[in-house]
Amino acid sequence: FRAGRIRFLTSIVTSCGFCDEIIHIYLATKLEFDAPNPDDDEFVNVDLVPLHELIDAVLDGKIEDAKTVVGALACDSIAHRLGGAEL
Asked: How far apart are CA 27 and CA 4, in angstroms?
């Protein structure tokens, strides 16, 4: 994909006191399909789902990794604050 717009959402510290890793989370919108260019050992599957389905998967425990949970909930919060306007 190629993003027409990239917006910074937040940063999370993955393991306070254990390491100094920080993950920066962004929201990409106005996406366009582009030719894939993966590394030789890289396999990427893309599933496009509506935001409400993503949030349901988070709340149902189907998605558990912290960076995806935080990113999904941040997107949902922004969508509600914008009153349904485009993210």
From this structure: 11
